[in-house]
Amino acid sequence: MKIKALENLFTLHHKVTIYVPATVDVDKEVDNSAQVDAAAALLSGLFGGATSSPAVGYWLTSSGQLVKEKTTVVFAFADEKALEDGADKVVDFCRNLKEEMRQEAIALEIDGAMYFI
Description:
The chain has helices at 33-47, 80-100; strands at 14-21, 23-24, 28-29, 51-60, 66-78, 107-110, 113-116.
């Protein structure tokens, strides 16, 4: 579909989303504002800006426990080159976040595909 009013506008075709948990050790609630700010700073530095939104996430631990937690999704849009150049930094950030928050995994979504870091 072509929309004439949008023809000559700059577009970004890739979306990168980091799911920042608000728990440590699986189920102990914590203030995640510093981690959200760090994720937003990283994505803004790599891709020119970021947006965050609160969410509630549900997942099963490896032992079968259902965990319900407040989560903040931090996302940015990127062009092909910026994504290629910045992907390793985003994955490294998620690995560090996993360790810092003592999580089984950190969810990273790129273009609709979910990766568990």
